[in-house]
Amino acid sequence: MTTESVLAPSSTWWRQATVYQIYPRSFADANADGIGDLRGITSRVPYLRHLGVDAVWLSPFYPSALADGGYDVADYRNVDPRIGTLAEFDEMITALHGAGIRVIVDIVPNHSSDQHPWFQEALAAGRGSAARERYIFRDGRGEHGELPPADWTSVFGGPAWERVEDGQWYLHSFAPEQPDFNWDSREVRDDFLRTLRFWSDRGVDGFRIDVAHMLVKDLPDPLPTQAELEAMDAASGTHPLYDRDEVHDVYAEWRTVFDSYDPPRTAVAEAWVATPERRARYAAPTSLGQAFNFDLLTADFDAAQFRAVVTDNLAQSAVSGSSSTWVLSNHDSVRHATRYGLPPLHGRTEVKQGTEWILAGAPADAVDLDLGLRRARAATLFLLALPGSAYLYQGEELGLFEVGDLPAEARQDPAYLRSVGQPEWSFDGLGRDGCRVPLPWTRTGSSFGFGDDGAHLPQPAWFADLSVEAEEDDPASTLTLYREALRLRRELQTAEELAWDDAPASVLSFTRPGGWRTVTNFGDAPVPLPAGEVLLASGPLPDGELPGATTVWVRAR
Ligand code: NOJ
Ligand code: CA
Fold it and tell me: Contact 340/379 with Cβ under 8 angstroms?
């Protein structure tokens, strides 16, 4: 496969890249069926180029029964016919490379779809068969095996074991339509090596690895209870289900595939592990090479929390030799413009509670959207000045808010659907559909320019004012801010270092080599502007001061 490219070969392009996450079903719909598609992405390459991103990461676009938004993959080496064809994938990658934009695709190795031919074969082949060895089947407990092998709960709530017709049970860490693979199987390992080569051969530059910490398991006999699992040390490397040390043997094999290409293919791990130290193992050059750090995403808009997150993660990247990653929003979390409008919360659990509370019908005036957006813009400028890679989520460049009031019948997220009537199963309040609503491109028209005939999730009327068309030529818009910031970031980007400057308690100030200084006022009261030429600010700077919830970039003198 040849792709015309303006990209200079580089083995380090990812270290400080700006990566834009596309959720393909919700980005742009070229054939008017309400579902975003690859031709839609290709048609928006000029937009992505103008935005100034270095790479896009595509969430799954593979054939899928959509039990989990495509994270239930039925065929790892194909395109969902509703999203496009392999030929259209090639056209898309050629267009992106031609615009100087690299391409990262999502690999989902912990589980397949229950529609995957291997799982169908396992069901048909019956107990004790080689086909069942590719997944995790066990007999049940109880006199007739009528009880699940263990009382484990899935990430999306409810039991983690599902019974099949002949009475055996299989493990699904997520939805029942997502059976977990058995990574002790050589066939499973070889098949993923084949998948990595397949996409690399098509010109893909890198991979995002879904729940990279969960693949390898060691299930003792008898199985521990859920309570026992929870009491085990998740940072030991020997937990039966999570973050086992041997998972890196899998990635060492993957590394040989990545390194057989020129330039080497890259990977970033989604690894929810117990400590930054454990995360650094995934970021090692012998493993996946980079790992997501969600610590900013789970922090409050708070100077001390932000500083601790940055300091800890830069220290970890010094250990791993990788660069840091920074994330404020993605397809699994409440958009940060809404999150920062919630009352102060600390840590993931409380963020979830806040989300549930707000989305479950708290009075609308309980979310301060103006403040949320001001803080979101300030946090984004803070993030974009940090050493390392910035991962942005489609729509955040428009300042989109979470769509909190989707009707129940429109919701698609299994985390929500499995929790209806079972609040104790709830994974994240009303689930993740509110950040996956198709993008508004125009002020008017069917689905605000997303496509010509509706959108698979309903868009609210307020999308008009946050559409690309509405923001395009507005110097004060969030889109203009992102474009300007990404342009300057390319120009100012320098060695992966920063030095903290003295600042009052509610202010963070740091300087990158070359005099690129970033000052964020996390408080309410204005503070004096730093000396130097103002390059960009996340909001107005009245009276020569830096107001609360505002970031400024200056060229320090
Ligand atoms: C993490 C993905 O980001 C999420 O969207 C998905 O539901 C789970 N992994 C399961 O694949
Ligand atoms: Ca479509």
Answer: yes
Tell me what pLDDT residue 366 has. 64
3-state secondary structure of 388: coil
Report the alpha-carbon distance of residue 270 to residue 72 in Å, rounded.
16
pLDDT value of residue 37: 98
Those residues whose beta carbon sits under 5 angstroms from the ion ligand 2 are 29, 31, 33, 35, 37
User: Counting every residue, how long is the chain?
Assistant: 557
Q: Which residue has the tokens 């263990």?
A: 150
DSSP-derived letter for residue 153 is: B
Residue 275 clears pLDDT 70, i.e. is over it: yes
Q: How far is the CA of 210 from the centre of ligand 1 (A)?
A: 6
Give the three-class secondary structure for 191.
helix
Residue 75 carries which side chain, given as an amino acid letter?
D
Residue 2: what pLDDT? Answer: 42
User: Could you give the CA distance from residue 192 to residue 207 in angstroms, rounded to a whole number?
Assistant: 12
Q: Which of 269-283, 404-418, 473-487 has the highest mean pLDDT?
A: 473-487
- Which of 362-371, 389-398, 416-425 has the lowest average pLDDT? 416-425
Q: Residue 319: how many CB atoms within 10 A of its CB?
A: 14
Measured by CA distance, the residue closest to atom 11 of ligand 1 is: 71
Testing ligand 1's pocket by substitution, the residue of 105, 174, 333 carrying the most ligand atoms inside 8 A of its CB is: 174
For the segment 361-373, the average pLDDT, to the nearest whole number, is 71
Atom of ligand 1 nearest to the CA of 332: 5
Q: Is 320 helix (H, G, I), strand (E, B) or coil?
A: helix
Among residues 478, 557, 490, 556, which one has the least CA distance to residue 518? 556
Mean pLDDT score across all residues of the chain: 92
Range with the poorest average pLDDT among 201-210, 401-410, 535-544: 401-410
DSSP 396-416: GGGTPPP-TT--GGG---HHH
**Which H or E run includes 266?**
strand 266-269
Average pLDDT of the segment spanning 104-122: 98
3-state SS, 80-103, equals CCCCCCHHHHHHHHHHHHHCCCEE
Alpha-carbon separation of residue 485 from 50, 232, 352, 428, 489 (angstroms)? 12, 44, 30, 32, 6
pLDDT digits (tens, 9 = 90+) for 118-147: 999 999 999 999 999 999 999 999 999 999
Closest CA to 216 of 194, 238, 190, 192: 238
Q: What is the Å distance from ligand 2's center to 40 Cα?
A: 7
Q: Reduce the DSSP state of residue 532 to 3 states and report it.
A: coil
Q: What is the pLDDT of residue 429?
A: 62
Residue with the two structure tokens 């120009």: 491
Q: What is the pLDDT of residue 50?
A: 98
In this prediction the pTM is 0.95
Please name the residue that has the structure tokens 């595939």. 257
The closest of 238, 186, 197 to 217, measured between CA atoms, is 238
The alpha carbon of 460 and the centre of ligand 2 are apart by a number of angstroms equal to 20
Q: Is 462 helix (H, G, I), strand (E, B) or coil?
A: helix
Q: Name the residue of 25, 26, 59, 68 to mutate for ligand 1: max ligand atoms within 8 A of Cβ.
A: 68
